[in-house]
Amino acid sequence: MTDTTPFKTSNSPILNCKLKGQFQRNRKKPSSPEQWSERKDKVKAAFKYAWDAYRRDAWGKDEYHPVSKRGTNMINNGQGFTIVDSLDTILLMGLKDEFEEAKAWVRDELNFHQDGEVNLFETTIRVLGGLLSAYDLSGHDSVFLTKAVDLADRLMGAFKTDSGIPYASVHLESGRGVPGHEGGISTTSEVSTIQLEFKYLSYITGDDKYWRVAENVIMKMKDLDTLDGLVPIFINPYSGEFSGDEIRLGSRGDSYYEYLIKQYLQTSKTEPVYKEMYDHAIAGVKKHLLGRTIPSNLLFIGEIRKSSPTNLSPKMDHLVCFLGGTMALSSTEGKTLNSTTFPRSSFSHLEEEDFRIGEEITESCYEMYRQTETGLAAEIVYWVKDKEQIAGRSETEHRPGSDFIINNRDGHNWLRPEAVESLFYMWRFTGDVKYREWGWEIFEAIEKYSKVASGGYSSIHDIRRKDNIAFSDKMETFFLAETLKYLYLLFAPNDVLPLDKYVFNTEAHPLPIFVPPRNLLERPKDGGHQKKALDDQ
Fold first, then answer.
1. Does the N-terminal peptide bond of residue 493 adopt cis geometry, omega within 30 degrees of 0?
2. Averaged pLDDT, 330-350
3. Is the model's pLDDT at 358 over the cut of 60?
4. Alpha-carbon distance 44 to 487, whole Å?
5. 249 neighbors 380 (Cβ within 8 angstroms)
6. What Cα–Cα distance (Å) separates residue 231 from each residue in 4, 55, 89, 251, 310?
7. CB–CB of 88/146 below 8 Å?
8. pLDDT (tens digit, 9 = 90+) per residue, 113-125?
9. Which of 118, 165, 188, 422 has CB 3.0 to 4.6 Å from 237, enough for a Cys bridge?
């Protein structure tokens, strides 16, 4: 890593600002424990409503279109996207009949020996991650491990590059890596968001080849030039170097940062290099990417180019909302704050600052919902830094008094999970009921505007006006795998999947924390194990 200049947090005017709170909220009376249990059950009912419609209209298909009542596949016979992505949610909710039926489909119908190309990242986080989580939560049912090994062996072909940086896709039948469609370039977040899954698979099988190829990617990236730990969003699998100079924590960048801290926690803090890389990157976030809004003084994460780091764009994807929970996770290491055993006063200065940023980003993401007419968030917002930004804007683009602009092309809502994900983390760590209340408001908006009368839930073309709601006829698999799971856990007892025992992959599949055997922790600099793993394959 080239730039190692420490970041002096006390000098940041952005972080020293206080929230003005000009956009006042209506405070509700605290809900009772019985009400939270009822709300948990309502989330479960929503999942069942969505699942039953998928089962009726599209069973076995990768994706579901609830308005037209049909399913589609990403490749010929599908790769189990919806079913496998939903397995652990079904288990958590205690839906036994649904689980047995889904398990039978995985055992009898799921076949990866197909003539088709799949994205390495999406297939890893959804299908491999879903199989591994189901394996763990089902009490180590071999059906899921057998399928996981078969899939991972096919995905290994993506790593057969001169640099060790994988290709974007894989041909499943042959196991051949396939370069990305944008000049062969891979996406930074995609190649660095496969490690939790591959490393856990090595741990449970005893075969280190998955660990070696996945870890090698991060070790290669560690030695590349960065901007205070911040990385461009593209990487070249031929040269092993970053490509372009766009830096953002939204699409193509987000989960690189998420998986740094989660790898550190997954292996019981036995690999401090990942914590060091994460801390370096977060120092870069504080130095280059933070901004404040008017009128409410909300904290946001912007975008820059490496070549002009002082020119902060106020654009923020909903995807960035993962950061609130992730920063809180890094400060607490998964432990719940407690006035006696783990008080917040025990935080170091850095931990307290990171936790505070996590709180503020989570609040800003909640405001992305609350400040719209429908109570649903847009895919992308542009935060208002000054009055000139909103001059001449229509009330549809900028709702009077709000802190952001939603451009005409950005008003869609795909029922994404990142905001409720951070609400879940914040509730677990703080016990502050406001996070549950905020999550319930979001769930109510989903029920009101995204529920399809004939079954299922749909993404929406434009959430900016109540009188202009139109379904885009797609129920993303992450709605079942992530959004409803995090809402369910937000309202469930805190001993369900404790965060000091599990890490969630970026598709919300919980994987257990473990202590790796010594042979997996060996890290030769010459990449010898990487070559051996691929030769064995």
1. no
2. 97
3. yes
4. 9
5. no
6. 14, 41, 33, 13, 16
7. no
8. 999 999 999 999 9
9. 165
